[in-house]
Amino acid sequence: MAAEATEISAMSFEEAMAELEQIVQRLEQGRTPLEEAIAAYERGAALKRHCEDKLRLAQEKVEKIALDRAGVPVAEPIDPENGG
User: Which of 27, 46, 25 is nearest to 36 (CA)?
Assistant: First the structure.
């Protein structure tokens, strides 16, 4: 399969999610031969990890806009522990 030749680490989040959705649909149909299903499951697990890593990195980069004491907008990292 051509999609399987694509190196996961080179994929964007959107590409990885699209392929993961295709794998899930194929496996849910239940018509995939066992060996192919196992290979698809393994690739799906790798795609899931890749997407989770991409989301984690994006979350680390997200900043919120706040006002400092002088009323000037400043960017601050979001603190998920304290609700933003």
Answer: 27
Q: Can you give the CATH number for the domain in which 23 is found? A: 1.10.287
Boundaries of domain holding 41 = 2-82
Rounded to an integer, what distance in angstroms lies between the CA atom of residue 56 and that of residue 82? 17
| Tally of domains within the chain | 1
pLDDT in tens, 17-30: 999 999 999 999 99
**pTM of the complete model:** 0.70
Q: Give the separation between CA 69 and CA 10, rounded to whole angstroms.
A: 43
